[in-house]
Amino acid sequence: METSRKFGLLLLYLMIMCSYSLAIIMRGVHPKDEEYFGSDLIRCKDGSITFSRDRLNDGFCDCADGTDEPGTSACPEGKFYCRNEGSVPKLLFSSRVNDYICDCCDGSDEYDSNISCQNTCFQNGNNNMTRTFSSEVIARDKEDRVTLEELVERLRELKIVFFLEVILCVLVLYFLRWRIIFKRRGYL
């Protein structure tokens, strides 16, 4: 009973870590580039080398143009994409990531700097907007599009996480099966 509980907790921990790691991998990536970074092998945009997906946002600069580090400050030529939902998205130089200054209105550029950035996107996005019927309709339309893009992105991530969880479950069951066989034969 104790062994199965440990395996269950291990499985839960691995599932949580897999879903967390997907969010880290896609940090700082422009929505138009998500498909570009979706494959297992990714080529630097300057064409110099090909790298595996696990080297994306790993904190080490592999591409001279910064392709492999859109969410870190590892590459001097890198760019970080601020989604800034509710306001205007923007690109930052990678040197501005985790520099203790909130450059993105959503605070996404300071994910690892131990400071808390207040999300001011909605406030900033509406400061200069006159409150007419047409501008409210346009604002709602933009919010709906962003929400649909997010849903598609989350579904892709869930599909990958689900696939990894199934593989992990099969491996755990396979391990348990052999453990039972070895136990019956007296090897354990």
Write the layout of secondary structure elements.
Layout: H1 2-25, E1 41-43, E2 50-52, E3 79-82, E4 90-93, H2 121-126, H3 133-185
Antiparallel strand pairs: 1-2, 3-4
Helix pairs in contact: 1-3
Keywords: Membrane, Transmembrane, Transmembrane helix
Protein name: Glucosidase II beta subunit N-terminal domain-containing protein
Pfam families: PRKCSH-like (PF12999)
Shape: elongated
Q: Largest beta sheet: what is the strand line-up?
A: 1-2
Question: Mean pLDDT score, rounded?
Answer: 77
**Total DSSP E strands:** 4
Radius of gyration (Å): 22 Å
Could you name the ranges where pLDDT drops below 50 across 5 or more consecutive residues? 17-24, 126-138
Structural class based on helices, strands and sheet pairing: mainly alpha
How many distinct helices?
Answer: 3
Keywords: Membrane, Transmembrane, Transmembrane helix
InterPro entries: Gtb1-like, PRKCSH_N
GO biological process, one term: N-glycan processing
Protein name: Glucosidase II beta subunit N-terminal domain-containing protein
Model description:
By secondary structure, the chain is mostly helical. It has helices at residues 2-25, 121-126, 133-185; strands at residues 41-43, 50-52, 79-82, 90-93. It has one domain (2-185). Helix 1 runs antiparallel to helix 3. The two termini are 16 Å apart.
